[in-house]
# Entry
Amino acid sequence: MHIHPGLNMEFIRSEDKCFEEGVRRAAEIGYRFVEPMVHNGRELLSEAGYFHSFSMDNDPLEMKDILQKYGVAASGLSAHCPLMRPEISVPYLEKAIRLAAAIDAKVINTDEGIRPLWLDDAECFQVMRYTLKKVLQVAERYGVSIGIEPHQSITRKTEGLLRIATLVESDCLRVNYDTGNAFLSGEDPYAGLQAVLPLLVHIHAKDISIRQAADEKGKVTGTAVGCACGEGVIDWGRVIGILRAANWSGVLSVECGTSKQAEASLQHLTGKLRRQTVAEVPAR
# Structure
């Protein structure tokens, strides 16, 4: 059983830096896992070196070389696309799966996306089932999981999250739990985490500041990034305790907005993980 801190690459966005600089900075801070974000085609800011997202039109081994250069591994890929738009999400997710396999990442993380106005309640699940059934054929061949994240109108509730994550019977259809999104949507993040444990493959370690919690709880379905872990409303000792009790192994991928928050998060999570480990050792 091993739980490791990791870092979502969103932390470097506030500095207008490229993918490689974000990886270098993460390694310098002390992280050994990162979660890159990918996109289709060519995007001006990334091409100019001002944004961290990595084009899936690039050679996947270019990303692998950068990760190896700085001694880090990818815990997964941030590959969000609208599951209710199969014309977009099927080719996008299939490409993300192949990239993930090339860099030895075990999961691509996504959500249902914003619901199109022309789909009714029954149709939206039928369309998502089609998307996932098609994409999971590729995921199963490559041994890469699809992690459904609580982030939009359906997954904002644990019941909806689990419904999407069980639309297709496959060992590769799993959950990427986001503690901060769950909290802001009005769910109990600890009860939600307990509920998804059988399907849990990856975690977005997102903390929410007291001010944001007061302003937005129950009004939004999620947020792009949170504050530093340990400086907000999430009890990380409790989260880690739930994971350890379930013998879960994986990465807590920190989603924060700055390098300083990334440093503080690593220190806080490492301390909590160390204290939990010491507490498990029986006294002699």
